[in-house]
């Protein structure tokens, strides 16, 4: 299932936006504005990239909403703090957990469980890219139970998977990809691969243009 995309017209001013509201027009919302709480949400990789950009966009939005946030990855992972800061993430308010490589998936899972169980984090990103991971229903069940108990948002970053989502307990699976608009200009477009909640029956806005 594909999420319909809609490019926001940068030429609209406040007066035009107000007029659109009064007219009752449907205004597209970004992915970050629509993520459900208390669910497992998967952002899977695509050959054209876009996974990290989407995750960082969701993280920045959660922080603006006042959520305490954390990012869990193996040591030497792909997280690059200067890029996060450049894209609106408050690094002083972000807990970054670097799990020893030797602990692998088990270490990542344990660290994420501890963060969620504390009840102190409203938004957690778990980076599973490059990690040997089984579709462990018990593991997914514990994470889902904790996100529901504390009304948290958990993003699972997973490697490209042509066979579907990370597991049956994932409610929403999104596959972002970069669309070239011109020289060094890209747009992030989302393909909704799984939506058990029926959240994206309406229009989903494109992410902002990336200048490279």
Describe the structure.
The protein is 28% helix and 28% strand. Strands 4-3-5-6-2-7-8-10 form an eight-stranded mixed sheet, with helices on both faces. Strands 1-9 form a two-stranded parallel ribbon. It has one domain: Rossmann fold (3-Layer(aba) Sandwich). Helix 4 packs parallel to helix 5. The protein is α/β, with parallel strands linked by helices and 212 residues long.
Q: Please report which band the strand proportion falls in: under 5%, 5-15%, 15-25%, 25-35%, 35-45% or over 45%.
A: 25-35%
Helix content: 25-40%
How many distinct folded domains?
A: 1
CATH fold naming: Rossmann fold
Q: Let me know the number of strands.
A: 10
Total DSSP helices: 5
Strand order of the largest sheet: 4-3-5-6-2-7-8-10
End-to-end Cα distance, whole Å, is: 29 Å
Largest beta-sheet details? 8 strands, mixed
At the fourth CATH level, what is the homologous superfamily? P-loop containing nucleotide triphosphate hydrolases
* Highest-level CATH class: Alpha Beta
Q: Which runs of at least 5 residues are low in confidence (pLDDT < 50)?
A: 1-27
> What is the 3D form?
globular
Class derived from helix and strand content: alpha/beta
On the 0 to 100 scale, the average pLDDT is: 80
| C-alpha Rg (nearest Å) | 17 Å
CATH architecture: 3-Layer(aba) Sandwich
Give the ordered list of helices and strands: EHEHEHEHEHEEEEE
Question: Oligomeric form of this entry?
Answer: single chain
